[in-house]
Give the backbone structure.
Amino acid sequence: MIASLLEWKAKHWFEHQQRHRAKYPEKYKARTAVGNAIRDGRLARGVCKVCSSLDVHAHHDDYSKPLEVTWLCNKHHNTHHRPWIEEYQQVAAS
Ligand SMILES: [Zn+2]
Ligand SMILES: [Zn+2]
């Protein structure tokens, strides 16, 4: 019961992402802008704001401000976008 609900959430999330991607090319532009800014020394790579890991991704709250980023490691970036993922993994593992 709970597993199927979580499966639905995962599927729904995936479809949502696909639509989101088609609808918001700014996301890809923002990512490129961050890469270029780091390369040019205009933006310094930070640490994960949750666990201070150095292995970070740039997370955007607003893609229209490509250089306003929040640094999050892979794990915390996932949990930021998919708050239910840990619950899902626990159910999937049990
Ligand atoms: Zn982290
Ligand atoms: Zn993000």
